[in-house]
Amino acid sequence: MNQTIKNILLKMVFPLCICHKCPSYPKKDPKVYCERAKSDKKIEEKGCICDKCLVWKLNRFSNYYYCIEGKDEKSKI
Question: pLDDT tens per residue, the chain (77 residues)?
């Protein structure tokens, strides 16, 4: 999949993402880790809300802390 299509898909799921509400979220970081990649910032594990997210549910993801681990293996983006 080319980068333009990936960017369009990420823009579509971005509004559904709740990473910014997570207690572990590093401020001013791009979100949608489950579809994109892990954060470049140091993450302090304070809890995870991935399973509350519509992106996570729609894709039937099962892991947590994508901000630390990186995108889900089931990701199509």
Answer: 799 998 999 999 999 999 999 999 998 999 999 999 999 999 999 999 999 999 999 999 999 999 999 999 999 88
Q: Which residues are CB-contacts of 36 (< 8 A; sequence separation ≥ 6)?
A: 10, 30, 71, 77
Distance CA 38, CA 65 (A): 9
Domain boundaries of the chain, sorted by first residue: 3-69
Which letter does DSSP use for residue 45 in this model?
-
Closest CA to 50 of 36, 37, 61: 61
